[in-house]
Amino acid sequence: MFNKPHGVLTQFTSDEDRRTLADFIDVPGVYPAGRLDADSEGLVVLTDDGVMQARISEPKHKMTKVYWVQVEGVPSAAALESLRSGVNLGDFISGRCEADLMAEPVTLWSRDPPIRYRAAVPTSWIRLAITEGKNRQVRRMTAKVGFPTLRLVRWSVGPWTLDGLELAQWRRLAVSEVAPVAKSWSASVPALRSNRRY
Fold this sequence. Notes:
By secondary structure, the chain is α+β, with helices and mostly antiparallel strands. It has 2 domains: 1-59 and 159-198, Alpha-Beta Plaits, CATH 3.30.70.580; 64-157, Alpha-L RNA-binding motif (Alpha-Beta Plaits), CATH 3.30.70. It has helices spanning 50-57, 77-85, 137-144, 175-185; strands spanning 2-4, 31-32, 41-44, 46-47, 65-72, 98-102, 123-130, 149-157, 160-161. The strands form 2 sheets. Strands 1, 3, 5, 6, 7, 8 and 9 form a 7-stranded mixed beta sheet that branches. The protein has a two-stranded antiparallel ribbon with strand order 2-4. Residues 187-198 have low confidence and may be disordered.
């Protein structure tokens, strides 16, 4: 698990002069299970197991990802219900999800660079739990209901959260943290019979 800072690409190589996972993680053979765009922050799970990678990243497996989303303005009850019910984004309609106002996370690190500040425009935070995760989906959803995303932090992927993981730090998942999830998918997941790194 890696707590990705803003501006870091969720890949190990880049043709551009931008930071990547390789600037933080020196573990051979692991790959991110799903993307998190450069403007977003938070939890990225990496694995060397192809089955695990697919189960985490492919929407058909419906693994829940929780995002803390700072938006411009204060969403109405109707806007939150629109998010929950599914938003028509043109190329697809988002699935049903959880969307609720939350207090500003007091333990959240400062973002570098900080979001733009406008004294006349209030901001608020939404806890959004989805099982899809298509390209820039959360940002597109909040914009569609009239509340553009200013800051996006992925707090959790399935049962794994950022709790205790500092910004730009990574740690290995213990077998005890992975095994229950793997068992729920299949009794024969290869990761349970090997010394793979997660």
